[in-house]
Design a protein that fits this description.
Structural class of chain B: mainly alpha
Strand content of chain B: under 5%
Structural class of chain A: mainly alpha
Shape of chain A: globular
Radius of gyration of chain B: 23 Å
Radius of gyration of chain A: 24 Å
Number of helices of chain A: 13
CATH architecture of chain B: Orthogonal Bundle
Number of helices of chain B: 12
Oligomer: heterodimer
CATH class of chain B: Mainly Alpha
Number of domains of chain B: 1
Largest sheet of chain B: none
Number of strands of chain A: 0
Helix content of chain B: over 70%
Shape of chain B: elongated
Helix content of chain A: over 70%
CATH topology of chain B: MetI-like fold
Chain lengths: ~325, ~300
Amino acid sequence: MLGYILKRLLLAIPTLFAVLSIVFVLARVLPGDPAQTILGDQASQEALAAMRHRLGVDKPIGAQYVDFLWNAVRGDWGNSLVTGNPVVDEVRKVLPYTIDLTVTAIVLGALIGIPLGVWSALRRNTWVDYVARIGSLLGLSFPAFVSAILLLLVFAIQLRWFPVISAGRLDDPVERLRSLALPAVNLGIIMAAYVTRVTRSSMLEVLGEDYIRTARAKGVPTRAVTWRHAFRNGLIPVVTVVGLYLGILIGNSVLTEIVFNRPGLGKLIVSALNQRDYTVLQGMMVVYAFAIVLVNLLTDLTYGFIDPRVKRQ
Amino acid sequence: MSGDTATVPIAPRGSSYALQQLTRAFSANATSWIGLVIFLLVVALALLAPLISPYDPLDQDILARLQGPSAAHWFGTDSYGRDILSRLLWGARLSLVISTVSILAAVVIGGAIGILAGYVGGRFDMVVMQAMDVLLSFPSLIMGLMVVAMLGASMGNLMIAIALTAIAPFARIARAPTILVKERDYIEACRALGYSDLRIMTIHILPNIVAEILVMASLWLATAIRIEASLSFIGLGVRPPTATWGGMIREGFENILDSVSLSIFPSLAILLVVFSLNMLGDGLRDAIDPKMRGGE
């Protein structure tokens, strides 16, 4: 297992390199002058040159690339053009909120989605199956901001069960949970929709395998066939796909944070967009690049943990 | 040897194979029919927008701000007194054009990359698909956000952003069947006849994977509409006053305490289109994918 972990860790390095390169291409190589974007059309030539120097975009592109990679890796992402604070600090301030939100959403998604998917597969082509399928299809058709607005409208504005602005203080556990509830449910339900579908199709595939028939023929009780034989094998693709959907979750958390006015990476990126805070935007991209690589790594590791065959390769 | 007339079957069951596959899939699955009908209805409404929309989508009426549904304004008015129904119809055009063009581009580029990688194989295949995997690991919304943030919000840039996020999945889906098909005898026969690689790829391999690509395209069309709306909602869509569904929802959200209809109707519109496309694609996939067919 240790060898497997080490190998995965080593493999993550070139991936990180590739993802950061894409970010660099997006930020620097695409047409457009960042200095012009920040200062507007009226800026003087001197001001533009000074801004280019400050951003480091007056150097040759090769040197910029090396600088970019080196700074990204050692956590020096420059200072915000608006507040002057290091981008790392701005990120660190809001990161706990986003982590709270996404982790809760994954847990909710798995708690709802996996049992529902298994149930739907076991009762294939009954009303349970139809309801679960239509429901999950509907769930993943919801843009995250649409469902968020509906939840806000019903539970915060009409019923007043939850605060309209989910800022929440991290040191007060009750407040923290109350402000987390609606955003997390919003993301959790969408996640559950994805998980239900994967679990269902994966279980159906496993239940059709020969070894399941063999187990049944031997007279193994249905419960044991379902959980010990089918479920463990059916879970393997679910883990990979949940890893893939983490990406969707990261994207949806941006929308959710905006609607619920909740601090987090999403709110940070949107305010940076509105204020044309170029360095924060670039720093956010680096954050997302790291997040993507980390998620892929975790998925691979979990995969190896569940499926013994993977480790031995 | 009669040269070109020595016939090699274009695909295992004729060139209409993809069509047959799709027709069979449709007849097996009622949900895909429902999805298709709803979607075509929306397309028709969008096409007819200039004829049927009751008002100009940009016409302001300060005296009729934030009204609820009425006989004059079926879906009410927004904060400038513009007719929501008219803006919805015009917004549908924009949404459909952006998503269709970007997914079409992704299908062509991604499909070409996938077929080429699968057909050539070897190191080329490995490098290209590795690059696709990195691209694939970017969440589509985050990718779209980055591209539009850097390039600026415009219709063209939105299309580029959405197409970029969709290329990798199409490359993947085109590659897998290519690898299977290229080992078949009839491809061997094509080579023996001296057909060029380009001809083999376009005439003899492409028809085999059209059905799968079309199914995938309908699902990605739904995703594209969702991404476009999300970016407009964030404020990175086509600039106001142009009517976009996402932009309308943003406006409705800002005025949510005064008027609910402003955010509800565009929300329902997006939901309807995305859901219908998902029903269409999902039903077809169920019917086409042999794995899903077993065990009945």
